[in-house]
Amino acid sequence: MSRVVALIDGEHYPPVVRFALDELRRTHEVVAAAFIGGTEKVDAAGGEDVYGLPVVRGSNASDALRSAIERFRPDTMIDLSDEPIVSAADRFRLASEALALGVGYVGADFAFDPPAARVALDTPALAIIGTGKRVGKTSISAYVARHLDARGHRVVVLAMGRGGPAEPELIRGDEVALTTEDLLALAERGVHAASDNYEDAVMSRVPTVGCRRCGGGLAGETFFSNVPEGARLADSLGRDLVMLEGSGAAIPPVRADATLLVVGAAQGSSYVSDYFGPYRLARADGVVIAGAEAPLATQASLGELVAAIRRVREDVPVAVTTFRPTPLADVSGARVLFATTAPPVLVDRLRAHLESEHGCDVVAVSTALSDRGALRADLRAHAGRFDVLLTELKAAAIDVVAAAGAEAGVPTVLCDNVPVSLSGDGLDAMIDRLYALALERHRSGRP
Question: Measured between alpha carbons, how far apart are the two ends of the chain, in Å?
């Protein structure tokens, strides 16, 4: 029998609530009720004499829920309340708070469980998770790995992706520099050679273990993954830290000692204030707002986003960043076609940066890297105008861009997206703090 606390309200007639609690006792160990509001059908003083079990109250619904969890340590909160005491938005907020404390949240036609940490490592672990796809999480992860490696810390990245390998794959990015020719050979064998684990290995130059996952739940659980097996492989390498990289909004099913959350500035404040945004924020020990530049984000929208973060987590450090493309090889003097997943509104800025900082002539930019048909059309439209293909290592970078380069006899140069701090807490200082925090929590056994 699972141990539960029921959420009850004063809009239900007490004998009806007690009937429901008695029914719950047939299948659950009901240890208490949390009263979350309402006065229409109940005396505010109603307690154990009315409901037949201890009743926890608070200044508001969140306070009652947290107090009940702290006192009674349930497995699950079962919501017996209803409109108008709780709206759908209220229920997501309460569910976020329950899940952040490791407790499930169940109602009449819904059930949410906290993403399961199926593996606890012998190595300290830092998770890097995101609020969605294309927020820059892999670029941030590679930067974190490079930064820690430069500090003399031995790290391994555990990456999971929608195109990852059938069996966990170790890539010794610290020993072997993968070339576009290597990646093309992998693609010809049917491997998704632009998956996150290859990007991590190429951009960070540290050991990387690649895994796959399919499906993503609202709170970050995956429907299927081979991450537990990959985590054990990463753990066996004897490194100082395992970096657990999420996929989209999915969270690796491995216990993390510290967590960095990456939020896309263009997503807007709802991604941290609504649904399970507050849950992801509750897990975070640091937040990076990525892509924080006009026209993707205005000063007003950034202010709203930071304010939304502060309403949930007043104390969490926040770094505001954007990205700049950095070729991994010299492209000075070359006529370049640049393939990217960046939105079209940034084309002029990216072109200007590449030309001024890296000395190339950007003759064309394709923002269709994740649309194979449109990407092939862009390559055909500009054939003969470029003598170097420059591409991010994502989506169709290898099987379309590099393959087209090989066919045309022009080299393909891979391009990193390097985060640049704009305001807020410094990114490097945040990384150092999270590394120390992960090690300290791991030593003490604290979650």
Answer: 26
Burial of residue 69 (number of CB atoms within 10 Å: 0-12, 13-18, 19+): buried
214 CB-near residues (< 8 Å, 6+ apart) = 162, 222, 223, 224, 225
**pLDDT tens, position by position, 165-208:** 999 999 998 888 888 888 888 888 888 877 888 888 899 999 99
* Rounded-to-integer distance, Cα 68 and Cα 34, Å: 6
Nearest-CA neighbor of 327 among 344, 339, 315, 345?
Answer: 339
Tell me the Ramachandran region of residue 275: left when phi exceeds 0, alpha when psi lies from -120 to 50, beta otherwise.
left
pLDDT digits (tens, 9 = 90+) for 223-234: 999 999 999 999
> CB within 8 A of 292, min separation 6: which ones?
265, 302, 320, 321, 322, 422
Whole-structure pTM value: 0.91
Cβ neighbors of 373 (< 8 A, separation 6 or more) are none
**Cβ atoms of 256 and 197 closer than 8 Å:** no
Q: Which of 41, 65, 40, 68 is nearest to 54 (CA)?
A: 68
Contact predicate 400/375, CB 8 Å = yes
DSSP strand pairing (335-339 vs 388-392): parallel
Asked if 296 and 342 count as a contact pair (C-beta separation under 8 A), the reply is no
The amino acid at 355? E
Residues 132 and 313: their CA atoms lie apart, in Å, by 19
Please tell me whether residue 161 adopts helix, strand or coil conformation. strand
CB contact set of 346 (below 8 Å; sequence gap of 6+): 293, 296
CA distance 206 to 202: 8
- What does the block give as tokens for 443? 């030593």
Instruction: Tell me the β-bridge partners of 320.
Output: 289, 423
- Taking only the tens place, the pLDDT of each residue in 385-429 is 999 999 999 889 999 999 999 999 999 999 999 999 887 679 999
3-state SS assignment for residue 141: helix
